[in-house]
Structures are given as C-alpha cells and as structure tokens.
C-alpha cells in the first residue's frame, strides 16, 4: 500500500462516545441524558454515539473495535459539589483496576468496564483504544427514581459542550490539545482530590478537573 501523498488530509479519528448509567437510579442517568442531547449536534466524521446504559459487558467488547479515542459519560462521585463536571484520563490508571472476576454485569461503572476491557484485550489480542477519557458529573441523588436532580440537570449541557470540544466538533485540529489542556491542569491539582470520593472513580482516575 502506498503512503498518503504529502499534504493529504488525515483520515478522521475513530471515536466512540458512550453514555453509561441507570436511568432508574436518579442522577446515575446523567450519561444517558448527555448522549441523548449530543444526538442533536452535528459531529465530525468518525465519531459514533451509543447509549450503553447498564450494558457494560457489551461496551467493553465494542471498545476493542479499533477506536482511537473513547469518551465514557457517567455520573462520577468525587466528593465535589453536586453538578460539578469532571474530566478523567483513564487511559493508564494510577492504581490497578479491580479484578474482572468480581464484575457485576448489571451495574458496571466505567472503572469496571475498563477492567473487563483489560482482560478481553489480553485474552483476545484485540486493540484497546489509544485514549480513554471519562466525562463525569458529581451526583446529588442516586436513589431509585427517574429524573435528574436540579444541579445535575443543569450540568448536562456543560458536559455536552465539553464533549463537543474534545471531539473537535468546532475546531478538529484543536481537539487533542483541548483534552491535553484539561488533563495537564488536572494533574497539577490531583493531590487535592477528596480522599473520601467514590472508590470506583479513584481506581480509574489519573487526573480530573472541575469545568
């Protein structure tokens, strides 16, 4: 196969945006609502949106389908004010992910999905995404019930705007720089993260920042 001609446009990055969560547990439905609203926006070529919900096992298999970047959108407890939007770089976790054998297929956080992804990649030889980011929102209430709390509802559009910038919906050439800017700033403040934050989020977290 011949090399691309000099100056030829790069092919679009293959990107997956996956809404994760349970709409019957209040603010846990944040990711599902965020990707629903994303569907109203034009996206660059190569960007795919899926409403994964609680189908974490299916998502882990799909993430081996040659994606350059995957954005997981979910409620993420970090000990901040409800409605705070976080950006986590989960490509290379600072601590080991949980054992895949302990996963619950009916309630899989992004952390658990990534643990299964590691297992599937090692067992099948499939290629995991080059980069995995988690766009999360601090929940206020995840008790049984349908509907987001006021602060989380207000944060959905903020998260949508962040995702659009990350995938280069407005300026494709700047998309990766946008992600790097968030994670670089976050790395400087990582030590300030609340130590009482949700354990599931901590196991995948490398960096995070309020938007």
Structure description:
With about 210 residues, the chain is an alpha/beta fold. It is about 35% helix and about 15% strand. A five-stranded mixed beta sheet has the order 2-1-3-5-4, with helices on both faces. Helix 1 (about 30-40) crosses helix 4 (about 150-165) and helix 2 (about 55-60) packs across helix 3 (about 110-125). The N and C termini lie far apart (about 45 Å).
Distance between the termini: 44 Å
Report the portion of residues in β strands: 15-25%
- Characterize the main sheet: 5 strands, mixed
Sequence of secondary-structure elements: EHEHEEHEHHH
Secondary structure tally: strands: 5
Low-confidence stretches: 1-10, 182-211
Name the shape in a single word.
globular
Mean pLDDT: 75
By DSSP (H or I, 4+ residues per run), the number of helices equals: 6
**Helix content class:** 25-40%
Structural class from helices and strands?
alpha/beta
The rounded Rg comes to 17 Å
Largest beta sheet: what is the strand line-up?
Answer: 2-1-3-5-4
Summed up:
The protein is built from 6 helices and 5 strands; from the N terminus they run E-H-E-H-E-E-H-E-H-H-H. The protein has 211 residues and is of the alpha/beta class.
Which terms summarize this structure?
alpha/beta, 15% strand, disordered N terminus, disordered C terminus
SSE order and pairing:
Blueprint: E1 15-20, H1 30-38, E2 47-53, H2 56-62, E3 69-75, E4 85-89, H3 110-124, E5 131-137, H4 150-166, H5 175-189, H6 199-204
Parallel strand pairs: 1-2, 1-3, 3-5
Antiparallel strand pairs: 4-5
Helix pairs in contact: 1-4, 2-3
């Amino acid at each position: 196969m011949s090399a691309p001609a000099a100056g030829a446009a790069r092919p679009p990055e293959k990107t997956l945006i996956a809404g994760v969560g349970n709409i019957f547990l209040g603010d846990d439905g944040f990711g599902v609502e965020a990707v629903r609203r994303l569907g109203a926006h034009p996206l660059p070529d190569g960007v795919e949106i899926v409403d994964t919900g609680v189908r974490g096992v299916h998502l882990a298999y799909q993430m081996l389908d040659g994606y350059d970047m995957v954005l997981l959108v979910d409620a993420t407890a970090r000990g901040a004010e409800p409605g705070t939007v976080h950006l986590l770089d989960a490509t290379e976790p600072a601590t080991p992910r949980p054992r895949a054998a302990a996963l619950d297929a009916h309630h899989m956080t992004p952390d658990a999905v990534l643990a299964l992804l590691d297992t599937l990649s090692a067992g099948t030889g499939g290629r995991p995404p080059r980069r995995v980011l988690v766009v999360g929102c601090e929940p206020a209430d995840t008790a049984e019930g349908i509907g987001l709390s006021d602060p989380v509802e207000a944060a959905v559009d903020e998260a949508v705007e962040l995702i659009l910038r990350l995938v280069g919906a407005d300026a494709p050439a700047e998309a990766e720089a946008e992600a790097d800017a968030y994670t670089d700033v976050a790395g400087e403040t990582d030590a300030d993260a609340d130590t009482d934050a949700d354990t599931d989020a901590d196991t995948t977290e490398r960096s995070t920042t309020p938007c």
